[in-house]
Amino acid sequence: MLDFSLSSFDEIACELGARLKALRLAQGLQQTELATRARVSRFVVQELEGSGKCTLVSMLRILQALGRESELQSLFVRQVGTIAQMEQAEGPQRVRAPRKHTRQSGAAVVTKP
Known about the structure:
The chain is mostly helical.
């Protein structure tokens, strides 16, 4: 299995296309049948499986036609496991500089040597 963190965008796209092809074949669907269900052209399915390239809308339609749209649910959810990770996710807290002391009107300021 391809490690996405060590791969180029093109390699990731090709891997996702290959995975979608495997899902289609596992369900016994031909490209034309998947295309009809997804309301895309057969060329879109062929291009996605071959090069991993298509529009986001086409990808979503194909995933829905394959019954895999629920797998997108956790795709961009920020996951935090420990308290330290939660604190780090919050980012640095904003700290204000101390206020400069101002003279009160009419009061004398006394300094000691």
